Amino acid sequence: MRYQISGKQIDIGEALQIHVRTEMDDILSKYAGRPTEAYVVFSKSGHEYACEAVVHLSTGLTAQATGKAPEIYAAFDSCGEKMDKQLRRYKRRLKDHHKERSQPVELSDAGSYILESRDESDETGDDAVSGMIVAEMETKIPSLSVGEAVMQMEIASAPVLVFRNEKNSGINVVYRRDDGNIGWIDPRTSD
């Protein structure tokens, strides 16, 4: 497995990197089967360290966790505990999806944009309808079943997930509703 361990404006020593690799290997070997890569980023805000970990699994799913603590090792340990809990919760489903899937998840390229937020009081004329693009990025849209998409959204603690439905190859959306349930948008094409 490939690791990328880095710090945002802080130095990450060799001992911490070894600790991260060892602990992540222990966590992932219990649940994930064959993870492909992991990104672990440390940062500091005031007196508190933060650790964010993203692990790409061979099933095509991505697990994410964050942890904060006054010490850098404790921040990683908190992050690791959250990752362990997520993967433990979905262990059976992760293994079932891995057995069904003979090929890795197919990813399609897409553009992702961040638009400037506008106050309602600022709206004047036609320009108020369209916001200014603040950032432009590349993203990947996975080809998943609806069940895998819901699991991916829950593992990543994301409010919404856009995916290509494996059954009909259409672009679908799953999202967490205000009432706590999961919503699924499956656009129909007119014949």
TrEMBL record:
Gene3D superfamilies linked: Ribosome hibernation promotion factor-like, Sigma 54 modulation/S30EA ribosomal protein, C-terminal domain
A GO term for molecular function: ribosomal small subunit binding
Q: Which SUPFAM superfamilies match?
A: Ribosome binding protein Y (YfiA homologue)
Q: Does the keyword Transport apply?
A: no
Name the keywords, alphabetized. Cytoplasm, Translation regulation
What does the entry list under GO cellular component?
cytosolic small ribosomal subunit
A Pfam family of the record is: Ribosomal_S30AE
The secretion signal range is none
Task of the protein = Required for dimerization of active 70S ribosomes into 100S ribosomes in stationary phase; 100S ribosomes are translationally inactive and sometimes present during exponential growth.
Q: What is this protein called?
A: Ribosome hibernation promoting factor
Q: Where is the Sigma 54 modulation/S30EA ribosomal protein C-terminal domain?
A: 132-183
GO BP term (any one): negative regulation of translational elongation
